[in-house]
Write a structure and sequence with these properties.
Layout: H1 5-16, H2 27-36, H3 42-54, H4 60-65, H5 68-74, H6 81-99, H7 103-107, H8 111-120, H9 126-136, H10 146-154, H11 164-174, H12 179-195
Helix pairs in contact: 1-12, 2-3, 2-9, 5-6, 8-9, 10-12
Length: 218
Amino acid sequence: MDINLIDIYNKLLEHYGYQKWWPGETQDEIIIGAILTQSVNWKNVEKAIKNLKRERLCTLKEIHKTPLETIAPLIRPTIYFNRKAEKLKNFAKFIYTEFDGDLDRMFSRDPAELRKKLLVVKGIGEETADSILLYAGNLPFFVIDAYTKRVFSRMGFIEEDSSYAEMQQFFINNLPLDVTLYNDFHAQIVMLAKTYCKKRNPDCGRCPIAIYCQKQYS
């Protein structure tokens, strides 16, 4: 089967509508959310962000100034909250050490070099780095997560044991370099994985892109 990811995206867009991702009112909130969402449901992240906002700590500036012991209890809903508090502090320190807290200055750097810098920050992996670059920085990095891996390995387009870089390259090779497209396509994949292409008992019969799937489960 020829790979036409644009056709797949258009089918998802027709079914779900434009997703308006990432949830977040500011760049700071998007970055904080990208770090907190590691290994946890987004509803839990929303609870943690609400707690941070209540205490007026939902900015990188305030995260940088605030003791770890104050931040950790506020993000308890995200599990591993002590580690995630450290990750938030690490990222805030990075921003203020490298860029004087100026996100515009950070995102104006060469994208590939900036990605390398982000991956050096303790607690920032490839998925988190790419989420920050795409959703907060409007830079063209396709985000690969567990949902993407599940959907496209089941469809037969990528191997389940493919590396992050291999999966990302698959999308780069088969899509135009477009931030808006990368943004919404990833959001559409997440919606599909949550509604039809579930981890257990996938509902292939009602899947809006079943015609493209080489490994239907029903």
